[in-house]
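Q: Hi! Curious about what Leucine-rich repeat-containing protein 34 looks like structurally. Here's the sequence.
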Amino acid sequence: MNNDIDERGIRSLARLRNTMKLTSLRINGNPIGAKGGKYLGFLLLHNNSLRSLDVSQSDQTIESLVYLTAVLQYENNTLEKLNLSRVLGQWYYTLLSDHVAQKLSKMFSTNTSLKEVHLEKLFLTDHDIEILVYGLMYNNTLEVLNLSCNQIGDYGIECLSEYLGKGPPLKKLMIHHNHIGNTGARAFSFKYPSSKIEYLDISENRLTEEGILDILNTLRKPYPIKYLFIRGNKLGFQSRKVIYRMILSGELEEGKIDIKVYKKTKKVDEKYINVFESAVDFPTILSCDGMYALYVDKNELSLPE
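A: Let's find out. The predicted structure is below.
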């Protein structure tokens, strides 16, 4: 990774396709170019040992992506992990996100081996997610999907929710650093109980109290959540209180959520007073990693000693 491997290096690897026994190949951050992408497709076409491939940040073009995804669509049934994040394109080349989504959708529709796919920083929009979901509906193997750092909004997450409502084998979903708001969270909450999601990262979006509560109130499902990341959204008093109660009940484990809740009974710190002007009116502080403070009356909640 992050070397100076160009298309000649990938061509040399492709020549070893019949004898190479590699199971994992990471060439991210290398200027392999469009021809290098084609050679990778040729490598996957004739090699059955490779299980993990990382070609992120490798200046691909739509032509090379067509070749790579077509091989995964029709020929290769052994690759299990693929990272296509931040496919930069060459300096004079504009990579249209809808074209990328179309090729990926076709790949998902027939591939029977991929279990983990990372598609970060591809500028995928709501329309692109709609295209992508069409192929995902036919996929029965994908367990990890990373769509972080894109341009997904409420309609995009609504389309993705329709896919989750079908009960696919997907267990891990990462959609942090997008533009998802409360409307998208409400649509997500309707379909989420039908999913098998155990790991959800929806941090750094545009959720407020209403959207966060919709998600928290739908976590009680046949497949319980194991990891939840919601930091970077606008948590309010009620949502923080719900999180605290879920931790007390064991529904959420404190070490598996990115907001740590603990009891503080000493004198109120100056920084908390700056955040909440009424802090001094409450005798007990529940703080979340020093960024959020939840103030409750001792008579309202049963606090641990």
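A: A fun detail: The longest strand covers residues 284-288.
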